[in-house]
Amino acid sequence: MWLQAPWLSALALLLPCSFGTPNQDRIFKYRSYRETHSFFEQLQEKYPNLVELWYAQDIFPEILPRKITWGTCEGEPCKTLIVRIANKRLLTNSTPEVFFSGALHGDERLGPATVTELASFLCEEYGVDTQVRRLVDFRATWIMPMTNAFGYAAHRREENSMDPNRDFPYLHTRPERCMQTQTARAVNELFRRHLFQFMITFHGGMRALTYEWGSRNHMTMPQRRSTEPPDETAFREVGQAIQAAAGKTLHRRWFYPLGRINDLVYPVEGGMEDWSYAAGWEKSPTPITVCKPNTYGGYAEERTKYRRDSISTLVYLAEMDNYKTAPDNSLGHRLEIWSPSATNGHIARNLRMCLKTIEMTRPEVVVLPPSMPSSAGDGATSLSVQIYGFGCHQMTARLVAVPSSVVPGCLVGEDGGDLEQEQFQQILQKSVKMDATEGHCRGLSLWNASTPPPRVLQGAVPTGEEVCVLIAAEFDQQWARQTRPDPLVTPRSHAARGRLEERYQVKANDGPMMIKARRTKLFAVGGPIRLEATSATTMTAKDTVDQPALAISEETTMATSDPHTSLGSSIWQQARLVPTTTFVNLHPRPEEPEDVTYAQDFFSIAAISFALSIAVGCAMLLRNRQEVAIKANVKDAQTRSELAEMVGKDPI
Ligand SMILES: [Zn+2]
């Protein structure tokens, strides 16, 4: 049994501010069914732009056609709560999505406690931490805190004596024996409308972090070992990353043994895991069953017929503790999230796993400011860019220059996935390589004691024409590796195909959600620039303020009397720039106009020497940033209004 020494809590409270926000520390606790509902209602009230709540029985009328009372939860009709944490203003119909299930079995209560605190953490840290902000701005986190609402309220494994994790359309021989529960139908409807790249389903009763396969049809005989899923490399790599995020035991072993469900847990029929991984690509009606249940007024069999490639999630089953409901004093407290340790409570450990999973939902290159062209004084002009990989394990990145006529405004969208094929090909054909790098992605560093420095890409900028500087990157190409995949197909998951295939486009079964991905992803370094090859190098940069910017530009005019040049070590002096140089800030994201904290945090990442050299200009820069952000948000609202309307009509 895990016991928490009181002095550990006291000690943690004395940790320095850099470990988070001490004023937000609190001891974690379990919440009842009703307390969980009101917790989320309050969270939504406090963070209306980040939190959205729905009840499955209201928005998916097909799961309860006769609108009967299907269960009583703490004295009221049971409702299955669905939560989305995302920046509503930035959502599109291709925002990458991730899913967390709190408790498919109602008496396994660590999951609900974890995902409830996850939602709270994302909201509270949004305005404080740049990395958390990235998770909320450009990924959508879906949570069903009490997936089995009836079971959770009643402290029972099952829903009205039916086991939800035997109720999914996988390997059932009797079609009336699947999709019997409100729990499974609610999950099914959510998955019909969304394209989840990753998910964790939380359980309890043993300790293991597991992935596919988890059913008899994917076992070797007579050894009864799991066969290899086509996405084995992705499953294992991401599994190792979230295993590391969870941390170690006092015996210095990983807290979670990692392996396949069949090997570490046991095979089941009708499990959510196999269904959520394979419903979009394995054969139907076997193993993907077409269900015809009779419970609760029935459920149309069309609801278990799926569009090709629509449901292909990389799913992890976390068995969190030998106790289905671990002792209250084993949950730990909030500050532990920042400091992995064998003495961590359950919530911090599992919350870090969730954060790492959210990160992996979108592979991207993060470009750090400052980066601006600098002249060596001999006519050559080079650009230096600091980058790191986020949401990936391995990255190959090239710094390229492309004529801006091919990429008007240097706008490539989130990662180039939206571009028309012809334009994308032109960009690749006309790009001039300036520099390249490859290696490990840095990823989330919220709780890492030492963070690897960013990679530096540096290269000569072509002169005499207006160009866009872009990063062209590929991620996790090793995920194509297979040994003996069962069945014999290439990786099937959205996460792998979006990284590996030259072009990967897929639509959800219902509603507007889609994935538009390419193997080579593009990230804008800034707005268009034009460099003149003269003896006194002149540089101009186009103001991209009026563009609905991915790259928000910020201008700073260097005057001859600029105080920076008085600094002996100033890169400006070394570069001998002409006085009226305009440079483009490289922040690739629209920002909240009111959020000065973020801006400060953001700049702290940049080279300290540069930060000092522009100290005098900072006030002007921030004011300018706010103006730019306001314009960008207005523009953003306009360009996204159609989508918002579309998504709003059929939210999930
Ligand atoms: Zn369970």
UniProtKB/TrEMBL annotation:
Coiled coil located at which positions? Answer: none
Q: Which Gene3D superfamilies match?
A: Zn peptidases
Identify one Pfam family in the record. Answer: Peptidase_M14
Database matches in PROSITE patterns: CARBOXYPEPT_ZN_1, PEPTIDASE_M14
- Tell me the domain of life: Eukaryota
Signal peptide range in chain numbering? 1-20
Q: Which residues form the Peptidase M14 domain?
A: 29-321
Q: Which cofactor does it need?
A: Zn(2+)
The entry's keywords: Metal-binding, Signal, Zinc
What family, per the record? Belongs to the peptidase M14 family.
This chain belongs to which protein, by name? Peptidase M14 domain-containing protein
